Amino acid sequence: MEITVSQAEGNTPITVLELHGELDGSNYRDLIYKAQEVYDSGTRAMLVDMRDTPFISSAGVVALHTIAKILSGMKADHEESGWESFRDIDRDRDNKQQGLKLLGPQPRVYNVLEMVGFTNFFEIFTDFDEAIASFS
Amino acid sequence: MSENRHTLPISAKVENLNTIRGFIKGHAKRASIPQSVIDSIVLSVDEAATNIILHGYEENGLSGNIEVEVIILGNGLSVCLRDNAPPYDPTTLPEPDLTLPLELRPIGGLGVFLMRKKTDRLSYRCNPQGQNELTLTKYI
User: Which of A14, A95, B108, B112 could lock onto A45 through a cystine, CB 3.0 to 4.6 A?
Assistant: First the structure.
């Protein structure tokens, strides 16, 4: 999987992480490290573009959860056993996570996100401009 | 070997997950298994194989192989995974408490959760060779 990083200007500066390829146990740490790197360089809003991601496993789910934790100011544990729950993560009144949003998951990927409850946890967009405009 | 059984012995490394998924997809497609069934079994096997590689081998400082066997059935398919890591039976783990609100649900165990949800049958045995043998079945 290749990760492309770009910047978008909405109401706030947003970093877009485009994932090209399947997100699984072989590369989920790469995504976490990349997100930590852009967080350390000052990013506080991230859009993960999943339009070119044909597959996600629970390892990918863990990566997204960890990025949400990073954006909440928590140092990410890079080992699975350290992740406890969703309760530490900042959310707005609609109960959605605000720093990290998702773009265009394919049906197969959306299905996994739905099964683990992430469709209630992250805002998910199909349109890039709409996604960018949603960051406050 | 029967034409309905296909075996891939492969080194237990996360870099090989993609090859394992491709092996299953290829044989399932050739057998005209519906895409939704293929998607389910591929995800389940990926989760099971990831657990074997990370928790069975790597966490114990071991290396080894996984044997992946695809068995085309009249009404679906099974995938059997055999490994030489310490005995581990994922079918005995407690069910996650899905009545808990999301924010109180532990994130660990997601892989086993998905594996169970996406298969119709999951069985484990320590086979006569002393290997872990996990069989995942999805019906059409």
Answer: A14
The model carries a pTM of: 0.90
Tell me whether strands A97-103 and A46-49 are parallel, antiparallel or unpaired: parallel
Instruction: Determine which helix (DSSP H) or strand (DSSP E) holds A81, and give its type and residue range.
Output: none
Which of B44, B98, B107, B117 best tests the A interface by mutation, with the highest count of A CBs <10 A?
A: B107
Let me know: does A23 contact A63? Beta carbons within 8 Å: yes
Q: Which comes out higher in pLDDT, residue A4 or A88?
A: A4
Q: Count other Cβ atoms within 10 Å, centred on residue A91.
A: 17
Q: Considering only CB atoms, which chain B residues are within 8 Å of A87?
A: 103-104
Cβ(A118)–Cβ(A89) below 8 Å: no
Q: Give the three-state DSSP class for B98.
A: coil
Q: Is residue B84 helix, strand or coil?
A: coil
